[in-house]
């Protein structure tokens, strides 16, 4: 361990690393954490640059975060947005529909949340609730599900034709890792609010979720609106690489001066195709 004298006299990070090396102190975890924080900071700075460019160009960008419970969607959105200007950015996480909304066209409540010119909207779950969660949990009937699956490619084609850039992420997590995160939530009084009866059923109905997820991919992965799979068993890596992917999709001013690579790791970020190796099968 480091002594108080070490910490007092070491003025730079490298000096502490040298001391650790001399004394065979294992600081690999600390070094990984520091690398993550440095990388995150650089990418968040690029997100600020991207946001300013989007605002200036009056572009409309919607980024969808989908995936099983505890896959890390909310944590990733937090890292994406924590340094962005709230005047041209929104996070949308809709609660269950009201009785009035249940009688409306399904997409209507989401249309109201679409980005305005110059704005980025982050969807913490989206209209794709009807593709997976609702049929698995019995929150919609078969006709509603079938109608949605027919309409959603047409709906997204209209968004594409109108100039809205939609990025669709599926955060992929293994069954074992999901269970581990559920257990951690139950043990943490600050996170127990995140756990719900629906979460419990996520493990029990794993195969049913897989079936509907695959149906969703096969019918809604389209050229102008593809699904991007993010392997999320490592939360920090998922956050970093999903941010890289978004940045890679725009040719914004100053991009070439970025202090880190903006090309996502192909072992973590994968465009969906039918025979892709997934961790949440």
TrEMBL record:
Transmembrane ranges, per UniProt, are none
A Pfam family it matches: PPK2
Where are the coiled-coil regions? Answer: none
Query: What are the residue boundaries of the Polyphosphate kinase-2-related domain, all occurrences included?
Result: 35-255
Which EC number(s) does the record attach to this protein? Answer: 2.7.4.-
Keyword terms: Kinase, Transferase
Keyword set includes Magnesium: no
The record's section on Gene3D superfamilies has: P-loop containing nucleotide triphosphate hydrolases
Q: Which NCBIfam families match?
A: PPK2_P_aer
What's its job?
Answer: Uses inorganic polyphosphate (polyP) as a donor to convert GDP to GTP or ADP to ATP.
Q: Which family does it belong to?
A: Belongs to the polyphosphate kinase 2 (PPK2) family. Class I subfamily.
Self-association state and partner proteins as the record states: Homotetramer.
Please state what the protein is called: ADP/GDP-polyphosphate phosphotransferase
Q: Which organism is it from?
A: Aquimarina gracilis
Q: Which gene encodes it?
A: ppk2
């Amino acid at each position: 361990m480091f002594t108080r004298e070490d910490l007092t006299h070491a003025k730079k990070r490298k000096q502490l690393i040298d001391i650790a090396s001399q004394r065979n102190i294992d600081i690999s975890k600390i070094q990984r954490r520091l690398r993550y924080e440095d990388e995150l900071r650089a990418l968040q700075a690029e997100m600020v640059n991207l946001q300013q460019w989007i605002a200036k160009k009056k572009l409309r960008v919607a980024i969808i975060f989908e995936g099983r419970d505890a896959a890390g969607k909310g944590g990733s959105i937090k890292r994406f947005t924590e340094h962005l200007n709230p005047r041209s950015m929104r996070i949308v996480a809709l609660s269950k529909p009201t009785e009035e909304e249940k009688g409306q066209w399904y997409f209507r409540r989401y249309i109201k949340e679409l980005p305005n010119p110059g704005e980025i909207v982050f969807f913490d779950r989206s209209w794709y609730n009807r593709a997976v969660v609702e049929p698995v949990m019995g929150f919609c009937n078969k006709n509603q599900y079938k109608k949605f699956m027919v309409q959603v490619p047409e709906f997204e084609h209209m968004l594409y034709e109108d100039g809205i850039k939609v990025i669709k992420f599926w955060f992929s997590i293994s069954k074992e890792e999901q269970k581990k995160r559920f257990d951690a939530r139950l043990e943490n009084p600050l996170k127990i609010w995140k756990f719900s009866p629906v979460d419990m059923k996520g493990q029990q109905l794993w195969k049913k979720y897989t079936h509907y997820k695959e149906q969703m991919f096969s019918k809604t992965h389209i050229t102008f609106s593809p699904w991007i799979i993010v392997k999320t068993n490592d939360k920090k890596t998922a956050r970093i690489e999903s941010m890289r992917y978004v940045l890679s999709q725009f040719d914004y001013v100053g991009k070439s001066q970025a202090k880190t690579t903006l090309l996502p790791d192909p072992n973590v970020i994968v465009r969906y195709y039918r025979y892709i190796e997934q961790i949440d099968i």
